[in-house]
Amino acid sequence: MSDHEDAMDVDPPAGGNNSILFSAESSKGKRSTAANLPVEAEDSLPWVEKYRPVSLDDVSGHQDILATINKFVDSNRLPHLLLYGPPGTGKTSTILALARRIYGAANVRQMVLELNASDDRGIDVVREQIKTFASTKQIFAKSTPFGQAAAGGAGGAGAGAGSREGSSLATFKLIILDEADAMTNTAQMALRRIMEKYTSNTRFCIIANYAHKLSPALLSRCTRFRFSPLKEADIRVLVNRVIDEESVQIMPAAADALVTLSRGDMRRALNVLQACHASSTPLPEKGAPPPKPDDPPVVREMITTETIYNCIAAPPPDAIREILQTLLTTTDVASCLNTINSLKVARGLALADIITALSEEIVKVEVSAKVMVAWLSGLADIEHRVASGAGEMVQTGALVGVIRSGCEMMNA
User: Fold this and answer.
1) What Cα–Cα distance (Å) separates residue 360 from each residue in 82, 157, 364?
2) What is the rounded CA–CA span in Å between residue 342 and residue 323?
3) Nearest Cα to 207, choosing from 175, 178, 181, 182?
4) Which of 92, 88, 57 is nearest to 73 (CA)?
5) For domain 34-226, which architecture applies?
6) Topology at the third CATH level for domain 317-411
7) What's the pTM value of the predicted model, to 2 decimals?
8) Residue 107: closest CA among 202, 165, 171
9) Nearest partner of 357 among 387, 305, 397, 317, judged by Cα
10) First to last CA, the chain
């Protein structure tokens, strides 16, 4: 029986020394990670990929989910998995680290099929590529106990499970469907039968941002894990590590603002940090020779809180406090409008961002429940209209009217 890569390449039989020949050139649909690249390539990688977790122990947060998955692996009872939640919370990193633990870094390419939103995943792909990969069984894999084959050495309970089960988890394949909520309904319907029919050969891991966009038939066949936004403490650990290893010049207050503004998204935090680090590097003069290894180190500018807010394009706290103070204390509606419009132009603020930041500040104001409900309900309506395409000029006036109406209720 033959095994297939993404392009359905047939693996050659094992040689006399029981070695396995892998098709490393066929990488269609595969994601390259820093774990598989030389040092020179890692230096040019985005920090999101460079610092992607290699093992399950490196994954930030969600310790309860990781503990459950580890128990599944140790007991050799891995079910079909559904990992869903907001972006940047570690879903893809978790399943890639799990694949490296099960098969070892050398066998991942042969035993794992990964498809994401950039690949065609219509009904034809499900019936041909996925079905063919799931229906074939790897017969040339070395019968190595799982505890020895796992990347980083599973050890402990994992090694014990491997010794009891022989070749253990390396006997079945893993199909990863990233961003599966983008699959067509027809493809999801065709996938449910394949999941049942080839369970002995294959395990499926479905990754999605929104579980309600998946077919109920798929949901019922998977063990579901929700990845909630990461806690600030978990994000801070990796951010501090990157700051130290990359020698980023950043103020402590700016690092705190970065962690807060990431809102549980590790990918966003690292991307913003790398962008700010690049912007702090002075540009070489025109016609200057290229830098040499023995040149003195480049002196970079210090990253401040203002740099972080400008990179994210979020309203700075002082501007939001000024807008709120003006709305609460100024009875002249025209003066309130002029203040908000001038700040929007001077600082390049968007009304949608102002509404989001203003709602976070309003809840800190001590007012009656009736006034607070009126404010939040009015801001929600304005945000919905802005998202639907309403003009900012009129909706800015509506924002002033909502806040001032609440103030008049307090004075009544």
Assistant:
1) 33, 47, 7
2) 11
3) 178
4) 57
5) 3-Layer(aba) Sandwich (3.40)
6) Zinc Finger, Delta Prime; domain 3 (1.20.272)
7) 0.75
8) 171
9) 317
10) 82
Which of 218, 53, 251, 81 has the alpha carbon at shortest distance from 152?
A: 53
∠ CA 192-194-199, rounded to 5°: 105
Inter-CA distances, 139 with 4, 149, 224, Å: 12, 16, 31
Q: Which residue has 């003009």 as its token pair?
A: 391
- Take residue 399 and report the two structure tokens written for it: 């924002």
pLDDT tens for 27-67 read: 333 344 444 444 444 457 899 999 999 988 889 889 999 99
Which tens digit of pLDDT belongs to each residue from 100-154?
Answer: 998 888 888 888 888 876 666 677 777 777 888 888 776 555 434 444 444 444 3
Tell me how far apart the alpha carbons of residues 279 and 301 are, in angstroms, rounded to a whole number.
9
Which residue in this structure is represented by tokens 């070489």?
A: 284
Q: How far is CA 58 from CA 243, 352, 355, in A?
A: 17, 36, 37
* Beta sheet of 81-84, edge-to-edge order: 112-115, 173-177, 202-208, 81-84, 223-226
Q: Is the dihedral of CA 111, 116, 119, 123 positive or negative?
A: positive
Give, as one character, the DSSP assignment of residue 286: T
The class that CATH gives domain 232-281+301-312 is: mainly alpha
